[in-house]
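Researcher: Good morning. I'm working through a list of sequences from a screen, and I'd like to move beyond sequence-only analysis. For each chain I'm collecting a predicted structure so we can compare shapes side by side. This is the next one on the list. No need for commentary yet; just the structure.
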Amino acid sequence: MNRASLRTGLRRHAGFLAAAWLVAAPATAAVEGRAPGLARAVDAAWQRAVEARHAEGETVRAAIGQRIARSFAADEPALTYARTDGQWYGGSRAAAGSETEVALSWPLWMPGQRGAASRAASADVGWADANLAQARLEVAGKVREAAWAIAMATAEVGLAQTRVDFLKKLADDVDRRVGAGDLVRADALAARADALEAETGLADAQRELQARQAEWRVLTGLEQMPDAGEIENESHIDVDKLVAAAGTPPAVLAAEQAVQRAEGQLTAVRRSLGAPPELSIGTKREVAGPGQPGERSLVVELSVPLGVTARRSQLRAQAQTELDAAQAELALARSRHVAELDAAKRAIALAERQLDAERQRMQMLGERSQLLQRAFATGKIDLAELLRTLSASAEADHSLAHRQAEHGLAHARLLQAIGMLP
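Model: Good morning. Structure tokens for this chain:
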């Protein structure tokens, strides 16, 4: 597709869509301040998004896990205190003896285990960061879709209002001609009926716009509606250059990081014997009885798990399963990205052809409508034929507005597919 002609066509219709937006935009937007740009709207939606809280929580958890993996001990150290009174030696004074022991225990890393845990923790941090970026892009996609839904509904309101104004004027003209004896009363009734039908259509379009605006407020928490000019500007971006320069999209990057994370976890499990070895260093004081001198001794104890339990096998099987699932998800993410990118490019090309065809159709019907209006004014055609022509012309306007919004939405979805934030 010729991108130069694409950008030229977009510039031709950008003014129409922005004007239609401004016609139906609520007056409160001008009072409360400038319409929010997409970047600001994404920030606002991110603050309200449930997935944002999950993603941010994962980054905090991963960062804490990385600090733990870099620590001296494999787990939290523990302080133990033990005192025993009673018979240890036998004899008449044995019951008065006592033993007191205080020790500090450190869970230890096995050789190579700390490095494996650190690498696994770093991979976990990378996965959390990539998952955060992907979650933010998904929120941006919702904002873009909501903005274009408002654009389409706003264009509908503008077109419906234009049709109402025209049909009311036509009804007034018919009334005058009925009074002059040029037309019959039935023509006046038909014209008024069409004007009332147009008002009903306007009310439906306004209700749809209000619904889309309510969804925007729920999504972003903003009272101001999106900036029509900015979402139009996204349609003017040279997507070919963006696609050529784009790196790995967040969805694929998150899947790649998930594989690295699963590999790190599997390596860490293989290096582990289950519970970590534990080193205890303490002191013990023994007193045989009242008045007897106490004996102090240093106690050093090392406990090493054998690592032959079924639990270790279970952990390894679980880690291997997670790795297999992550690898399958990565392959699926790459295939999905290729398909989405190809579909987005095809959608833009199709939308461009439809937009050009609809623009030509609207121009021809507009010219025909003007000719028939002049013919009606001179009495050469009846009102029914004129109304049919006007209805076809209004339908063409309606269809063009939809094609323009669909074309812009196709661009927005391509930007989503390559991972570009507003």
